[in-house]
Amino acid sequence: MHPKALIPLAAQLLARVLRFEQPADALVSAFFRENRELGSRERHALAETTYAVLRRRLLYQNLAQSGKGPMERRLVLLAWAGEPRALEAGTESEERDWLAKCARIDRSSLPAKLRHNLPDWVAQPLQEQLGETEFEALAESLLQGAPLDLRVNTLNFKRDAVLEELKPQGAGATPYSPWGLRLQGRPSLNQWPQFKSGAIEVQDEGSQLLALLLDAKRGEMVADFCAGAGGKTLALGAAMRNTGRLYAFDVAGHRLEALRPRLARSGLSNVYPIQIAHERDERIKRLSGKLDRVLVDAPCSGMGTLRRNPDLKWRQSPQALADLVQRQQAILASAARLLKPGGRLVYATCSLLQAENEGVAQAFDQAHPGFRRLDAAELLLPQVPRAAELVQDGCLRLWPHRHQTDGFFAAAWEKA
Ligand SMILES: C[S@@+](CC[C@H](N)C(=O)[O-])C[C@H]1O[C@@H](n2cnc3c(N)ncnc32)[C@H](O)[C@@H]1O
C-alpha cells in the first residue's frame, strides 16, 4: 500500500473506535479482516496509532483543537505510531508545521488531567487512595503497553525447561508466580511449538496469582464461577493435577466455547464447562454445600487492565460502576452457597477501584458472619516467597506501577 493511503485509513479506523460501541480490539480485528491488503507493518502502525489515541485521548483532543481538517485525521497525526516516512508522505507541509508546533509544547506544563488522561470518576478515587505522588506513578504506568506474560502448563511441563527453550526469544521468569514467563514485544505465539503442544498459555502474572491464592488441590471439587474463556480454569485444572472436578460456569456461552480449544491443548480432562442463565441457576443450587473451593473472578470495570484495554476508561461510567457493584455482590453471595464447611472462597477483580474491591468484600463480611477472612500473604507464601509485597490489609492488591502486572484485587475467606 502507498504510504500516503495509510493515514486516511488510520483515521477511518479511529472514527469507528471512537464511537465506543464495541471493544477496541474487536473493531481493530474486524477492520483488518475488511482490509486484507494491509501488511503486518501497516497493521501494526494502524493498531498502535489507535491505541495511542485511546491512551492519551484528553491530551490529543486538546492539542487537536488548534489544527485543521477532520478531527480523526488530526488525532492520527498527533499520535502516529507507524514509520515516520508514512507521516511525511501522507501530510501537507501546513500539517507538518502544525505537528512541529505541537511537539514543542512542554507536556509537563499542561494541566494534570492532560498528563494522566483519566476521566475524573476514575482519577479522583485513585488520588484519594494513593496520594498525589503515587497516583502520578500509577497513571504513567497505565499509559504504557504491557509485557506479554505466559503461564507454563505445569501438568506436563516444567517452567525451567520451557524457560531454557524460550530464552532465545527473550523470555525471563516472572518475579512472583512460579508458573510465569515474561516476554517483551508481540511475537506470533500461535506458531510456536510450545503453544501448539499446550506447554504455554498467555496469562498475565496477576491472573496466575489469583489461581495460586485459591490453591485448588488434587481430588477436590472446585468451581471457577465466572470462568469466561477459562484463563484461570486452565491454571486451576493443572494445579489439581487433572484430578477431582472443576466446574467452569459462565453466563456467556461464546466465552465458554473459546475455552474448548484451550482445554484440548492443555491435556486437562477434569474440567466441566457449564453455561448458566444467571448466578441463581438451578444447576448451581444442586451443588450447594458440596465444593471445596470457589473462585469468583467477577465481571468488573477492568480499570486494572488499561495498559491493554485503554478504551475501557472511556466506555465505562459511574452509573455502570454502580450497577457492577450490585452484580458483584449478588454473584459473590450465590457462589458462596456452594462451599462446604472449611471450604475456601476467593473474590477477585481486575479493577483498581475500592468500590468494586474492598467495598464488595466488606459488604460480604457483614452479610455472611459464617465466613472468616483469610490472609492472602499467608495463603500465597508457600508458593510465592515474596507474597508480602503483594498484600494490603490481608487482600491481594496488584498494581501495574509497583508489580508490573495488571491491577488485580482478591479477598479470601474460609467457610466456618
Ligand atoms: C473477569 S471475566 C472472567 C475472566 C476469566 N475468569 C478468565 O480468567 O479468563 C468475568 C466473567 O463473568 C461472567 N459473568 C457475568 N455475569 C455472570 C454471572 N451472573 N454468573 C457467572 N458469570 C458471570 C462474564 O461473562 C465474564 O466472562
TrEMBL record:
**Which segment of the chain is annotated as a signal peptide?**
none
State the protein's name: 16S rRNA (Cytosine967-C5)-methyltransferase
Source species, domain of life: Bacteria
EC number assigned by the record: 2.1.1.176
Q: Which family does it belong to?
A: Belongs to the class I-like SAM-binding methyltransferase superfamily. RsmB/NOP family.
- Which species is this UniProt entry from? Inhella inkyongensis
Q: Write down the top EC class of this protein.
A: transferase
Keyword annotations? Methyltransferase, RNA-binding, S-adenosyl-L-methionine, Transferase
BP GO annotations: RNA methylation
Domain SAM-dependent MTase RsmB/NOP-type, which positions?
Answer: 138-416
Catalytic center residues: C350 (nucleophile)
In terms of Gene3D superfamilies, this protein maps to: Vaccinia Virus protein VP39 (3.40.50.150)
The family database entries (SUPFAM superfamilies) matched by this protein are listed as: S-adenosyl-L-methionine-dependent methyltransferases
Give yes or no: UniProt keyword Methyltransferase: yes
Q: Locate the residues binding S-adenosyl-L-methionine.
A: D250, D297
Q: Which InterPro entries match?
A: MeTrfase_RsmB-F_NOP2_cat, MeTrfase_RsmB-F_NOP2_dom, RCMT, RsmB-like_ferredoxin, SAM-dependent_MTases_sf
For this chain, one GO molecular function annotation is:
RNA methyltransferase activity
**In the record, what lineage is assigned to the organism producing the protein?**
Bacteria, Pseudomonadati, Pseudomonadota, Betaproteobacteria, Burkholderiales
